[in-house]
Amino acid sequence: MRKALILAVAVMIAACTTTKNDVPMTTTTTTETTPAAPAPVATAASTPLAGNPLLEQWTGPYGGVPPFDRVKVEHFKPALEAAMAENLAEVDRIANDPAPPTFENTIAALEKSGRTLDRVGSIFGVWSSTMSTDDFQPVELEMAPKLAEFSDKITQNEPLFKRIEAVYNAPDVGKLTSEQQRVAWLYYTNFVRSGARLDAAAKARVATVNQQLAELYTKFAQNVLADEKDRYVVLEREADLAGLPDSIRAGAKAAAESKNLAGKWVISNTRSAIEPFLTYSGRRDLREKVWRMFINRGDNGDAHDNNAIITDILRLRAERAKLLGYQTHAHWRLENTMAKSPERALELMEEVWKPAVARVHEEVRDMQAVADKEGAKITIEPWDYRYYAEKVRKAKYDLDQNEVKQYLQLDKLREGIFWVAGELFNFKFTPVSNVPVYHPDVRVWEVTDRTSGKHIGLWFFDPYARPGKQSGAWMNAYRNQQRFDTDVTTIVSNNANFVKGAPGEPLLISWDDASTMFHEFGHALHGLSSNVNYPSVSGTAVFRDYVEFPSQLLEHWLSTPQVLQRFAVNTKGEPIPQKLVDRIERAETFNEGFRTVEYLSSAIVDMRLHLAGDQKIDPDAFEKQALAELGMPKEIVMRHRTPQFLHVFAGDGYSAGYYSYLWSDVLTADAAEAFEEAPGGFYDKDVAGRLRQYVFSVGNTVDPAQGYREFRGRDPKIDALMRKRGFPAPARERAAKQ
Ligand SMILES: [Zn+2]
């Protein structure tokens, strides 16, 4: 059920995310037993359920696989309704069990329930994030509030909460395993946090608010999707292509052809098309045009404008937080995180903000000097940043991204990623063709143990942009590892938005994109390494500000010589020259001011919006004022402006939570140094073993601060992060500890 909930409110997130809900409420399970008596379903009369593939057990190899090839949009509504009804019936049986509450008959029983809904929700989420067609969108919009209502019916079930409370407070709770105690704690806390203790009137209001929010989240995401699909820039003439390398031209040509604009070129309104254009286009007028289109997604004053939706979301979130007994939405969200409070998260962000802004001013000076030398007679504007940064990179470090790109073939890097997983975790990836997919571009690999051959899970890879697919890159788990009743292996996926090149030619990607691939694969490895009993604490179901740690850590393996020499090869099979690698290393912290400020401004605005409390907020005005107060450099715009901030407004997941990437990066940088200090470097077996044992395999069975401490032998320190980003060390050492 957990997954169904989050997926219902749209999950994908630009530049990465996992799609896990961090609010495990009831459960997930896959296997066997359909409930003895299928629950009566109100709507079933008009919609026959027989033959609905979504409601069937997953059959086929690997413990069953999703029936992607048989799913039709019309299956979703009846399947979701039937699965919710079934789950509610299960929950009622648990709540009304005449036997005294025990872990087994209450918590474990909840973990076993909702398996049909979990399967349906999982596939529903795939459609929502990657196949959001015109016929799917109304279904999603209709089901989102119903799923929210369903979820509240469970957390507001009083007899059920009494049983959970009794198990959690039982005098002999210490006799449970530590994992069981943590699962019991999670249930208890999440029920309380969802309002289980409120009076009837407050509960009813929370439920109404949740339904309204679910609908607003869906509309928000669909609006961004519409602007990304319907708005694009057409390049009419050869002269419009000035400066663009061949690979970008080919992508733009293919995009034009797909829109029946043969003979022209199209720059799509998606990050993977926009950023390369801004980096290389010599046409300043077109750079500005493309930039404006991109940063105004959801902010065009038309039918897809998100401003009013944001105002409503913020108001409802503030009201819900108050009802639940919290000062603000941010305080509610951060309670169950490593940071614990918005103040601590802000403190970390502010510590990094100042040196980052100082670096931006240096970067702008360097760029202005290049522009002046060229006689460009311009002042650097936001649409010039990437373009002139690239020129500075060339001048300062003799490093041309395009020179690097020829060695970054998507397929080869994927092999490199597999190889790293083999070295670190002894995983082996084998392509399989006996598993249904939902789109011909999707490919599947079986993951096994390299030594024993034991099946570990499946990895789906959906690499290309297409209409109806959310932009950015993300990981998703279709099924969680668990073994408390039967052994269930995981199915995970990585999703990206690479612009398809010419057919038959290897797809070349940028260094940043390669890094993102390693990042998302880190989430996938986190899911695949899971070795726990209960689904609620499986894989990536960890605190939001901890979940980016495994993924960000994996990014470090891209630049290891072992990967570069073997997998960064051009189409002739020649590896990237060492001289070029040296130059990449020297330029490692180049443009870090831009990267950090672009990200941090979004994270700080997110936090401030959710600390603002119960007032009517005009998003554009609030954003402007917050940035002015921060001293935002005028040459940079937020990575995600408020009207397109999917992380924050397409669901609760990353709301007041975009800081998580920075928080996790404190751990990441510190953990990377553990490898650097080890005799075997990034391939040190000892450190890799500890990483798997205490971080990747434990899910949410242990407190992350404790897990980290066991891996590292101490709490994390912020110095490593500052070193990694090339900023001066902080005045005082501050541990980002629990
Ligand atoms: Zn991530």
Structure, briefly:
With 738 residues, this protein is of the alpha+beta class. It has helices spanning 2-8, 73-95, 103-112, 115-130, 136-155, 158-169, 178-193, 200-230, 246-258, 271-280, 284-295, 307-323, 329-334, 342-374, 385-397, 401-405, 410-425, 511-528, 544-554, 561-567, 578-586, 592-611, 619-630, 646-649, 660-677, 685-696, 704-712, 719-725, and strands at 232-235, 265-268, 427-432, 443-449, 455-464, 474-479, 490-498. The two termini are 29 Å apart.
What does this structure look like?
The chain is of the alpha+beta class. It has helices spanning 2-8, 73-95, 103-112, 115-130, 136-155, 158-169, 178-193, 200-230, 246-258, 271-280, 284-295, 307-323, 329-334, 342-374, 385-397, 401-405, 410-425, 511-528, 544-554, 561-567, 578-586, 592-611, 619-630, 646-649, 660-677, 685-696, 704-712, 719-725, and strands at 232-235, 265-268, 427-432, 443-449, 455-464, 474-479, 490-498. A hairpin with a 5-residue loop joins strand 4 and strand 5. The longest helix has 33 residues, at 342-374. The radius of gyration is 25 Å and the shape is globular. It starts with a helix and ends in a 13-residue tail after the last helix. Bound molecules: zinc ion. Zinc ion binds at residues 16-17, 519, 523, 548, 551.
Q: In terms of structural class, how would the helical and strand content be classed? A: alpha+beta
Alpha carbon gap, first and last residue = 29 Å
Question: Which compounds are bound in this model?
Answer: zinc ion
State the helicity in percent bands.
Answer: 40-55%
Total strand segments: 7
